[in-house]
């Protein structure tokens, strides 16, 4: 029986399909749940006038050094990281000098280099001088590299 499960191509294909369709999709669902839970926690804390624990929300961990404009060279997609109403947000930009205000997505810092935003895992890229030169956004097979331009 064990030899069957280890060598049967039909069984192996079914297991590969299950892994791709079910297990790999959990990352996105976990991020959606986490971001929603943090937003609900913030809303409840504000409504009940309770202090917000930054250990839970992870929105107030200082990443001032990462504020700026980032661009993907492939298609010139741009966004900026700014501090807005006391939290760091990432918002889209159409072009340099664009002053249109778009909805910002809150940044949930994990460490000085890693964070999640808009249902994606992100990592800041540093140079030898410990300055941010870009970031990588990923989720499963999706991976995009952005360079800091300003």
Share in helix:
25-40%
Distance between the termini: 61 Å
The major beta sheet can be summarized as: 9 strands, antiparallel
Radius of gyration: 20 Å
SSE series: HHHHEEEEEEEEE
* Overall pLDDT metric: 77
Give the beta-strand count.
Answer: 9
Structural class: alpha+beta
Can you summarize this structure?
The protein is an alpha+beta fold. Helix content is 31%, strand content 32%.
Key attributes of the depicted protein:
150 residues; alpha+beta; nine-stranded antiparallel sheet; 4 helices; 9 strands; 32% strand
Polypeptide structure, described:
By secondary structure, this protein is of the alpha+beta class. 31% of the residues lie in helices and 32% in strands. The chain contains 4 helices and 9 strands, in the order ααααβββββββββ. The chain has a 9-stranded antiparallel beta sheet with strand order 4-3-2-1-9-8-7-6-5. Strand 5 and strand 6 form a beta hairpin. The radius of gyration is 20 Å and the shape is globular.
């Amino acid at each position: 029986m064990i030899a069957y499960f280890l060598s049967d191509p039909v069984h192996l294909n079914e297991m590969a399909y299950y892994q791709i369709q079910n297990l790999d999709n959990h990352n996105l669902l976990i991020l959606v749940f986490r971001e929603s839970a943090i937003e609900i926690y913030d809303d409840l804390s504000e409504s009940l006038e309770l202090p917000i624990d930054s250990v839970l929300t992870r929105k107030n961990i200082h990443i001032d050094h990462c504020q700026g404009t980032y661009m993907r060279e492939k298609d010139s997609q741009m966004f900026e990281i700014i501090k807005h109403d006391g939290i760091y947000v990432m918002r889209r930009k159409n072009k340099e000098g664009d002053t249109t205000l778009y909805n910002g997505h809150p940044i949930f810092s994990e460490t000085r280099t890693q964070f999640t935003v808009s249902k994606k895992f992100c990592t800041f890229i540093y140079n030898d001088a410990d300055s941010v030169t870009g970031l990588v956004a990923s989720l499963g097979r999706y991976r995009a590299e952005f360079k800091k331009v300003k």
